[in-house]
Amino acid sequence: MATSIRAVVFDLDGLMFDTEALFHRVASAMLAERGKQMTSEIMRAMIGRRAVDSGQAFKTLAGLDEPVEDLMAEAKTRFMAELDVAVHPTPGLFVLLDRLAARQLPLAVATSSRRSYAERLLKNHGLLDRFQFLLTAEDVVHGKPDPEIYRKAAERFGIPASSVLVLEDSAAGLQAAKGAGTFAVGVPHEHSPAENLHAAALIVSRLDDPAVLALLEDEHVQ
């Protein structure tokens, strides 16, 4: 059944900002120092998930013996040291946000990251006030790919999930969005290729892809 798009939810890492590239560099350096190598399998298992889940994947798949907490603390220290200078908005982000503002559609962020980090990243780029609310790791019991976070987003908007457009870059995030009943759009990148984004209703090349903008102009999507 056709339904109108009445709100839009953005993932954060890898979708709005190229943070996955920085994390890949940090994780690769950590593994190299331990005589290990970063692989696409490790990256796929980590993208889109909460730190507690991605940390366990990192340890297991890389064959490390150190406690997960220690590994994630080291990764966080290295990552945050570069966050303010090494991370940039993804292509088309501001074009899409301006188009959404013109349509006066309510926006939210639903991320597996923690609130303090999400707010810092959005404030750094002057974007925090563009969003009606943020849902973060602290707001859910079950992280992506569980649909809880996107169900909560629809509830906060007060609209059916089928009227929510979700933009995601990860397999876990798209699985969560699809499970919640939203219209899920995948935006692949180097560390999350299109062939892994099976749950997407639509895959586009960038945030201001004509197909995304067309969704906003059309009254209905299928």
What features would you describe in this structure?
This protein is an alpha/beta fold and 222 residues long. It folds into two domains: 7-18 and 88-217, Rossmann fold, CATH 3.40.50.1000; 19-86, Orthogonal Bundle (DNA polymerase, domain 1), CATH 1.10.150.240. It has helices at 19-33, 40-46, 51-62, 68-86, 93-103, 115-124, 148-157, 171-180, 210-217, and strands at 7-10, 107-110, 133-135, 164-168, 183-186, 202-203. A six-stranded parallel β-sheet has the order 3-2-1-4-5-6, covered by helices on one side. α1 (19-33) packs across α4, α2 packs antiparallel against α3 (51-62) and α3 (51-62) crosses α4 (68-86). It starts with 6 loop residues before the first strand and ends in a 5-residue tail after the last helix. The model has no long low-confidence stretch (mean pLDDT 93). This is Haloacid dehalogenase superfamily protein, subfamily IA, variant 3 with third motif having DD or ED. It holds the Pfam family HAD_2.
